[in-house]
Amino acid sequence: FPHLMLPIAVGAVGLGMISVPLGLALFASVGVDRIGPASAIAGMVQNLAGPMVLIVIQVVITSRTLQLGGTGGPAEAMTADQLTA
């Protein structure tokens, strides 16, 4: 887990630095009469993007684990090498 702290921190800072300016740019480019629908769409995209990113991260982690010799199934059935993969 400690080797994941730097990528997580970089991702968090990047998301923080891009989400507010992106939202402001969106609302600045929309007419006053369309702020409501634009806000709803922006919220929906934010709510769907988080789970999609988690899916991609999980696929990458699972792929890497299997590439290093890990296996699927319950942890009780795994060898010590498979648990550290």
Describe the structure.
- The protein has 85 residues and is mainly alpha-helical.
- It has helices spanning 5-28, 35-67, 80-84.
- The chain has one domain.
- It contains three helices and no strands.
Can you describe this structure in just a few lines?
By secondary structure, the protein is an all-alpha fold.
Question: Which terms summarize this structure?
Answer:
73% helix, mainly alpha, 85 residues
What class would the helix/strand composition place it in?
mainly alpha
SSE run: HHH
Helix content: over 70%
What's the overall geometry? Answer: elongated
Q: C-alpha Rg, in Å?
A: 20 Å
> What number of structural domains do the residues give?
1
Q: Determine the mean pLDDT.
A: 85
Largest sheet: none
Beta content comes to under 5%
Number of helices: 3
In terms of topology, how is this protein built?
Layout: H1 5-28, H2 35-67, H3 80-84
